[in-house]
Design a protein that fits this description.
Layout (H helix, E strand, L loop, with lengths): L1 H25 L3 E4 L10 E8 L5 E8 L13 E8 L4 E6 L1 E2 L10 E7 L3 E9 L11 E4 L4
Antiparallel strand pairs: 1-2, 2-3, 3-7, 4-5, 4-8, 6-7, 8-9
Length: 146
């Protein structure tokens, strides 16, 4: 009976240890909220940054209450996501996608990309074209440095 109990205890201890390690690895990423916007005050969102097994950074953004870009003053065509790297470089990393599926609100948006650069700040601007090389003056959302 002692041998059976030790075997069960050992398996339970191993299982709990594996679970704790998995949770600690998953929590290695950063989860940062956007600051309140003066351009779109109702907009809320967060940025999740995780390092993958190839040492790249997976960036996921979820935003709610984001006004249509054409309704801004002045009107624009696209929301562009920018990343400031830990070397203080500013990079256009893509365009925000509106969620348009069944039962979704047009005020929700998301973004996901992978980069080899370590991000230190994420911000979103309203632009006329998605392939701009530098951010315009209409900053919509921004995180603090992380």
């Amino acid at each position: 009976m002692t041998i059976k109990f030790n075997s069960i205890s050992s398996k339970l201890f191993t299982g709990v240890s594996v679970l704790i390690m998995a949770l600690s690895l998953h929590s290695c990423g950063k989860n940062v909220s956007f600051q309140t916007s003066s351009v779109v005050p109702a907009a809320e969102g967060d940025v999740k940054v995780n390092k993958d097994s190839n040492k790249n950074y997976l960036i996921k953004i979820k935003i709610s209450n984001l006004a249509e870009v054409s309704r801004l003053e002045p009107s624009k065509n696209v929301y562009v996501v920018w990343m400031e790297t830990d070397e203080s470089l500013i990079k256009n990393i893509g365009q925000v996608k509106s969620d348009t599926g069944f039962m979704s609100s047009k005020l929700k948006a998301s973004f996901e990309t992978v980069t080899s650069f370590k991000p230190s700040k994420i911000f979103i601007t309203a632009e006329d074209h998605p392939d701009v090389k530098s951010p315009g003056m209409q900053m919509v959302l921004s995180t603090n440095r992380f």
